[in-house]
Amino acid sequence: RRTSMVDRGIQVAEKKAGEGAIELVCKWGKREMILKVQKDDTVGTIRRMMEEMTNVPAKRQKLIGLRSRKSRKLDDAVAVSSLVLKGPLPKFKMIGVPEADAFVDRDEADMPDIINDLDYDYDYKAEQAAPLIEDPENRKKLEAALAKLDINIINPPRPGKKLLVLDLDYTLFDMKSTAENFNELKRPYSDYLLTELYPHYDIVIWSQTSWKWLEIKLTELGFLTNAHYKICFVLDKTCMFSVSSKQKDGTMRKHQVKALGVVWGKFKDRWTHKNTIHIDDLSRNFALNPQSGLKIKAYRKAHKNRAKDKELMLLTRYLKLIALEDDFSKLDHHSWKDYLLKAAESEDVS
């Protein structure tokens, strides 16, 4: 028996019914919806139908499993007749949050809908971050975030392990490109990094997205079920809050941060700034703890860069080397690749 969501989908799809109609099945979360489209319809048509069925705005939808025969890029103008559709009832997945559930930070309500991350990222030094850290308002926000934080431990922390906090989108996963499956968007050496570092670090993933979709991404990418490493716990966007940072031109801009203080506050006897490192493609995310942050190159355009991206392979080497250090706060993670070069030179000499 079809669910009411499927029934609604059929009603919407019937408007498009006719000779030559093609049936598609879209999986959204745990629900499946049937769409009937024409060969001359487009990906944009599919997105609009999905928006009507789910209330997920077309611009926020990520479609997995739809691919054009002619191009790697799945533009809205691509015709259904140009799609690679397998089987009598082709399936694809959609990830997206309904308009009513979309997270909007009250402090960022006036910001544009689409922001180029590179337009306002910052490279923080300890002295530049001091005013942010000492700001009374930011301290209150940190205390409030710590008070409401309820961590769901997936795998218990292990004695004596340092803490590795990893971003997900554009660090381990190209969230923007289209593909037939998630593994095509998974960054090269992701599993290698996690496997090699697991003996030295407890691993936490912290992503600026909602838990509902974060869980889907992590499951599809295999990060929660790999036999060679275990994720300690996962944090989502609800653990973040906003601060105001000074840009290069002197103006102030509000943005979200991943304040490690909320984790350190929950695990006071286990992790501190001395044994924690946070990996992210945006340094503004560790504005309140720059000494613990390491910015890596964002992973985008997976189909073009998959064969040549070695960032995580190099990062693995660095993190294994510093795992022997007693105090991470004495290291300059901005120069992590220089550290690797010096280590390689020392090995050559010896």
Structure description:
This protein is an alpha/beta fold. Helices cover 29% and strands 17% of the residues. The chain is built from ten helices and eleven strands. A five-stranded parallel sheet has the order 7-6-5-10-11, with no helix packed on it. A four-stranded mixed sheet has the order 2-1-4-3. α9 crosses α10. The chain is globular. The termini are far apart. About 7% of the residues have low confidence.
Short account of what is shown:
Helices cover about 30% and strands about 15% of the residues. It is an alpha/beta fold.
Give me the secondary-structure topology.
Blueprint: H1 4-14, E1 22-28, E2 31-37, H2 43-54, E3 62-64, E4 91-95, H3 126-134, H4 136-148, E5 162-166, H5 190-197, E6 201-206, H6 211-221, E7 231-235, E8 241-246, E9 252-257, H7 261-266, E10 276-280, E11 293-295, H8 302-305, H9 311-322, H10 336-349
- Taken in chain order, the helices and strands follow as HEEHEEHHEHEHEEEHEEHHH
Give the C-alpha Rg: 22 Å
Proportion of residues in helical segments: 25-40%
The quaternary organization reads as: single chain
N-to-C CA distance: 71 Å
Number of strands: 11
Q: Which band does the percent of strand residues land in?
A: 15-25%
Strand order, biggest sheet? Answer: 7-6-5-10-11
Secondary-structure-based class equals alpha/beta
Contiguous low-pLDDT stretches (5 residues minimum) are 13-18, 102-119
What would the average pLDDT be, to the nearest integer? 85
Quick one: overall form?
globular
Our count of helices gives: 10
The biggest beta sheet, please? 5 strands, parallel
